[in-house]
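User: quick one, sequence for these tokens?
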């Protein structure tokens, strides 16, 4: 039975995901500034039309897709970040377990970072940082601080790294943050 489940999951992975734009052309979420991904999904895509007619006959709430989640995790683990982002972006995180949604948002940030898209990486890192009780906040802070430094934004980098040291002094990343702060002070 497990083998059949794995075969089904692999078959699903090989099929391209249905993106929100494909399943619903009438709802477009426009985000002018960084916002919480869960709020955007709640406002724009929690309810979709079941048919292509102008007058919807029936509406339903979208469910979290475990298949897309597993396919995204698999793609992420295989370093196929564009595909991972496709699957993760297709998920309706409002209906997901908090730990799962925190992980997905963190993995999306990491995927964007690895693809060199620093702007989107920082947007998703901010979502992780703003998430209450996420286990990835200290990791997100160090990544954000290092990304600001990479872009030459030393002052922003120092603010973020100091936040990490002050809020999470026992974090495994605090030592690295302290070293980066000292290095920045030496070269200023």
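Assistant:
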């Amino acid at each position: 039975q497990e083998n059949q489940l794995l075969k089904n999951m692999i078959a699903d992975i090989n099929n391209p995901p249905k993106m929100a734009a494909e399943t619903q052309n009438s709802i477009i979420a426009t985000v002018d500034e960084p916002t919480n991904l869960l709020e955007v999904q709640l406002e724009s895509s929690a309810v979709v039309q079941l048919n292509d007619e102008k007058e919807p006959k029936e509406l339903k709430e979208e469910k979290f897709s475990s298949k897309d989640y597993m396919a995204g995790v698999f793609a992420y683990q295989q370093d196929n970040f564009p595909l991972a982002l496709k699957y993760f972006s297709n998920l309706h995180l409002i209906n997901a377990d908090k730990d799962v949604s925190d992980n997905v948002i963190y993995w999306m940030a990491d995927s964007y970072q690895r693809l060199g898209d620093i702007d989107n990486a920082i947007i998703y890192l901010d979502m992780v940082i703003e998430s209450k009780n996420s286990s990835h906040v200290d990791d997100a802070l160090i990544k954000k601080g290092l990304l600001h430094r990479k872009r030459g934004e030393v002052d922003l980098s120092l603010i973020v790294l100091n936040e990490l040291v002050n809020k999470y002094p026992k974090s495994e990343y605090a030592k690295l943050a302290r070293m980066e702060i000292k290095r920045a002070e030496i070269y200023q």
